[in-house]
Records
---
Amino acid sequence: MPRPTARVLTLLELLQSGGTRTVAELADRLGVEGRTVRRYVDQLINLDVPVESVRGRYGGYRLAPGYRLPPLMFSDDEALAVLLGMVAGRRAGLTTAQRTASETASAKIRRVLPRHIARRLDALLEALAFTEQPGEFDTPDAEVLLTTADAVRHHRPVSIRYTDRDGRRSERTLHAYGIVAHSGRWYVTGKDARIGEDRTFRLDRIVDARTLPGSFEAPVGPGPEQRVLSGFATAEYRYEVTLRIHGTVEQIRARLPAGVARLEEHESAAGEDRATERWLRVELRAERLDWLPPVLASLDRPFVIERPDELREHVIALAHRLTSYAVEPDRGEAPS
């Protein structure tokens, strides 16, 4: 028969699953009488676990939000899910400035895992490999992240102090539409109230965030993630590139995603089936051009360069290099 302490912990686990539990239901699950359930609830309350009583026909007990996190009861699968989520978050760079918090939380869960589960987790982590190196990104402050998220949820303006990539500092009032995680960084997108235009800001460059009185209407149209990707594709860089590529949207997006390039249909020929491959206009901006010819070659689709002329020179140079590599060496002569 389970000891009383084990039943108290089982009661806590039942309450953590959500909703209101009747005394009769709890008594049946714990194998005790109703008055014993009430005694167990008192023990949880004495441990500062925020259990509240619900009156009425469907009353009973439920777990209320408390001033501190109560002990959590995880199943084996839940504990593994939390630990693997922490590993993936650290690898992707999607953590807050309190990096040690993730490490100490992982250590606490690892200490109480059953041995057979811990061994299986260790085996998984040893066998697991990543195709990319772990991100070494600046991470946002947790309070800035939570304050901004609250402003997004309640459509309230937020005052931010921001430092741009050139080190210039400014204070802005932002009507934040959403928070987006992209390529290992956190971004917030919204309308800069001073200039009346949409802007995207890196959250790790915000040193302070404070919600302001008032509210605003969220815009209709593209979601926050599409606004962020469009902002990347139209950001100011050294070169403005315009191409026409013959193919499908899926073929082009496989090499030039939305965060890199914008697509629009080029004027199609008369009678052309628009459901098949067709000419699409591609616009993007880049600080350098040397990476683009290999991408275009990997598309294996016809393309026309409209601008800039420097891109043509890079494409021709790549073609010459590939031709030289493909020349068959003379017999008896080792490849150079």
---
Amino acid sequence: MTDLPDLDQRTTPADHRFPCDNCGADFRFEPGTGTLTCDHCGNTSMIDGAATQAEPAIAELDYRAALNAELPKADIEETRVSTCPNCAAQVEFDADIHATKCPFCATPVVTDTGAHRHIKPRGVLPFALAERDARAAMTGWLGSLWFAPSGLQEYARKGRVMQGIYVPYWTFDADTRSTYTGERGTVYYETRTVTRDGKRQQVQVAKVRWRGVRGRVARFFDDVLVLASTSLPKHFTDALEPWDLSAMEPYTPEFLAGFRAEGYSVALEAGFEEARAIMDRTIARDIKFDIGGDRQRIHSVDTKLGTITFKHVLLPVWLAAYKYRGETYRFVVNGRTGRVQGERPWSKGKIAIAVLCGLLVAGAVGFVMAMQQ
């Protein structure tokens, strides 16, 4: 199976560059404003909405059609990307860039001349946080960490500009109906006589009476979110949640002006397997609620999936990768909320000083106690 249909003609690589209609320099998307801004002359331009009254603002795609390579050509695009030799990130670059550093791990990269053909994004959550605000959030987070190297915070504050990256995700919708068998447990108490410290006492002992049950539950899942990238540790990106998906805009490349976009590396079918695991956990909770009682056991679950739809969406992340004293540190900031996550830096010097201070304090306390005896 494949994510992409066989196209009769090669698609043209997308070039997300937008010249200013006043001076010809490149526009860039201004976070939090919904406008394009020219840094050369200060001209601005509004981004036209992509939605029409004839269709939903962000249309879903049929999952089974995608697996059968039956998606329309309009839902496929091709972009110029470079694959990092260290972390395998597939990052989109402008056509005139030939060498740079990978924004995910700071590895020097020479850009490819090839292209990446993939399912076109349907939605984009635009950046709402400017780079200066993301940097302030990151340095503040570093400053709150005990035993972090003092120089790293200052290095990060004065270091190179953070990279604005649109990270790929899948969202899945599914209509599910599940039948189950299990047991409902009812707690009751028996009075028993026990001997404690030579005295006979009556105590209440909890017991569970089990009764077999079967039933059905149904749930419609909307926008189950799955990371479609392997470039960053998943616990980094999970820690950036929640995402305000209700603010998502229909995809239009103007939102990418001045930013980079990562191509997805988790295939659609693998993404749905992860989404299905998320759904199964929710269904199990629904079943336990349906069983009721004081305790629940689930013996079997048979889930039927109705219509399954999906979207490829892009979510905004400010990213910094620094090489400091031979070590690489990566930090990510939610481009909407400013939530920060990253590698935990440790200062051996600070730890040694803290241990020494602890020993001195313990010694002083011991000396005082010895003098008082």
